[in-house]
């Protein structure tokens, strides 16, 4: 078992912090978010929240995520979670993976659009813009095919920036 992936739950009553070790995959996909809790100090059965300690995204996690419709990195807003310039190479790699489910490709594409959107809106990290533009334009067909599935606040800003309709 990976010892560096775990969740710490806080007892709602006595605030005791209890650590639960799980394999990386199970933490990454939130498989234990609703597990029962029992405080080892006061026996109270409700915890406040979990501090999730998990390795950054990697090939183990993403190679399953793109093909398995039943696993989630987050319950919602997965594209915001993935929208990190440090993940750029991973996002592109799995966007190009022929095994990736269309629903996952849309999320990956959205994540890339969020990165571009944030750079344009915040006017920083501009050094990444040229590469992002190049990489996205190499995948013009995907942008075209999935346009209606990508949130409008993103397409309204990112598509004109790329010179796309
Ligand atoms: Zn307690």
Structural key phrases:
mainly alpha; 2 domains; binds zinc ion; 165 residues
Task: Summarize the structure in words.
This protein has helices at 24-28, 59-65, 78-82, 88-95, 102-122, 129-138, 140-145, 152-162, and strands at residues 6-11, 17-21, 47-53. The protein is elongated and about 60 Å long. It folds into two domains: 6-53, no CATH class; 59-162, no CATH class. The N and C termini lie far apart (49 Å). With 165 residues, the protein is mainly α. β1 and β2 form a beta hairpin. α4 packs antiparallel against α5 and α5 (102-122) packs across α8. The structure holds zinc ion.
Main sheet?
3 strands, antiparallel
Global morphology? elongated
Please trace the helix and strand order, writing H or E for each element: EEHEHHHHHHH
Distance between the termini: 49 Å
Quick recap of the structure?
By secondary structure, the chain is mainly α. It is built from eight helices and three strands.
Please give the structural blueprint.
Layout: E1 6-11, E2 17-21, H1 24-28, E3 47-53, H2 59-65, H3 78-82, H4 88-95, H5 102-122, H6 129-138, H7 140-145, H8 152-162
Antiparallel strand pairs: 1-2, 1-3
Helix pairs in contact: 4-5, 5-8
The structure holds zinc ion.
